[in-house]
Design goal:
By secondary structure, the chain is of the alpha+beta class. It has one domain: Secreted effector protein pipB2 fold. The chain has 3 helices and 8 strands. A 4-stranded antiparallel beta sheet has the order 1-2-3-4. The chain has a 4-stranded antiparallel beta sheet with strand order 5-6-7-8. Helix 2 packs antiparallel against helix 3. The longest helix has 23 residues. It is globular and about 40 Å long.
């Protein structure tokens, strides 16, 4: 179990001066987490990010054997993802090439059978057809939670 260690008080930074000493600024505040695969190695979450001006974001993450990988999406990227998911699932089911690109965000099928990648800049998360189908059915919950966080 990882315990949060308080920062040292002899350093002078914004986080030490403005918040509780038990607070770790790299963590997410008030996160709502959903696992998207059976072995719980991939997840999507909505939370407030202290290091990003306490704004709510959607985070996709995957645990790898050598560490973890995550992508943080803003509201515009999350809306784009919601629009792309049904088309992506349908095209992957019939094994057609598909993709969606908006700025530095993209979701496209790889050369592998029924595997897609979610990119933001150069970071990516690998998603199977089963992951995408699950996300397609439950992503409205993520968007609703993000909207509630933004309006709070």
């Amino acid at each position: 179990m990882n315990l949060v260690k308080p920062p040292k008080f002899d350093t002078c930074n914004f986080y030490v001066e403005a918040i509780s000493p038990a607070f770790d600024p790299k963590r997410v505040l008030h996160r709502r987490l959903f696992y998207i695969d059976e072995d719980r190695t991939k997840y999507v979450s909505v939370g407030f990010y202290p290091t990003r001006n306490y704004q709510p974001f959607v985070e996709f993450g995957a645990v790898k054997w050598n560490g973890s990988n995550f992508i943080i999406l803003n509201e515009q990227h999350a809306d784009s993802m919601a629009e792309c998911l049904p088309r992506m699932c349908e095209s992957m089911c019939i094994n057609e090439q598909a993709g969606c690109k908006i700025g530095n965000f993209r979701l496209n099928k790889t050369g592998n059978y029924r595997v897609a990648r979610l990119y933001l800049n150069t970071q990516y998360i690998r998603l199977t057809l089963a992951n995408l189908q699950y996300l397609s059915r439950m992503f409205h919950v993520i968007l609703k939670q993000l909207c509630e966080y933004i309006n709070s």
